[in-house]
Amino acid sequence: MAPELDEKQKLAIMEQEINISKNMSRIKHKIAVISGKGGVGKSTVSVNIAAELSKRGYTAGILDADIHGPSVPKMLGVNGSMVGIDEDKLLPVRSDSGINVMSIGFLLPSEDAPIIWRGPKKAGAIKQFLSDVKWSDLDVLIIDNPPGTGDEPLTVLQSIPSIDGVVVVTTPQSVAIDDVEKSINMAKSMKIKVLGVIENMSGFVCPHCGEETPIFGKGGGEKMAKSMDVPFLGRLPIDPRTPLASDEGKPIMIKEPESPLAKNFSKIIDEIESEIK
């Protein structure tokens, strides 16, 4: 049983909740990207949504809520950056694509330094990112979450007032679908809108012959979305250029805007944009 909080601790929690509410009220739209399964390309989806919305004229930010594996800085080409401080608040790092970025990765002594924290400390860090980062007047904040339904995504969904909803990422095969369904059920149980499901790694189209091979299957995400009565946003094919672009710190929506994947992605982001207009 957790020890009872004293009055000072209760007051500190109340003050932080007020600060989160004030800070988040300056951001028009907040969207969390979640998945019950790791390795489905959630961070890739997050940075490309933010990059494309920024390209379309929105002031966009991205919060990397993955405490143990912060990959967003590298994928946006800002790894190794230092955060500034203004009026006792942290200043997000601005990427070349115009995105305001905050990640625990900016606060580590080195890129390979591990974070060996238990749940309460991880939750505390995320709440600080929500309350103590000077996000300013953003049009949209994308929150990239680690996989599962544990401390980090739970803290995000519980802490952000008036969150617009969640985008759920899966791959087609049933081993991923089974876990991703739990994320959808988590959002539903918390009365948070599921903006839609993205089926990532949905088939591989050979760049030489044009033949499509369903390496991980195809259609599983759409079938799941239909069975759970949530929107299906679309499919993203496997494109070898995607990881290369991420390694270079350039989202594929910016580096390869005419690629089949980018064109599919653009249609998906049209659907997400319709929710924030």
**Strand coverage percent:** 15-25%
Largest sheet: 8 strands, mixed
- The CATH homologous superfamily corresponds to P-loop containing nucleotide triphosphate hydrolases
CATH topology: Rossmann fold
Overall shape: globular
Number of helices: 10
User: Span between N and C termini?
Assistant: 45 Å
Mean pLDDT figure: 93
SSE pattern:
HEHEHEEEEHEHEHEEEHEHHH
Sequence stretches where pLDDT stays below 50 over 5 or more residues: none
If you compute it from the alpha carbons, what radius of gyration comes out, rounded to the nearest whole angstrom? 18 Å
Please, could you describe this protein's structure?
- The chain is of the alpha/beta class and 277 residues long.
- The chain has a single domain, classed as P-loop containing nucleotide triphosphate hydrolases (Rossmann fold), CATH 3.40.50.300.
- 40% of the residues lie in helices and 17% in strands.
- A hairpin with a 2-residue loop joins β3 and β4.
- α4 runs parallel beside α5 (151-159).
- The radius of gyration is 18 Å and the shape is globular.
Gist of the model:
With 277 residues, the protein is of the alpha/beta class. The chain is 40% helix and 17% strand. The strands form 3 sheets. An 8-stranded mixed sheet has the order 5-6-2-7-1-8-9-12, sandwiched between helices.
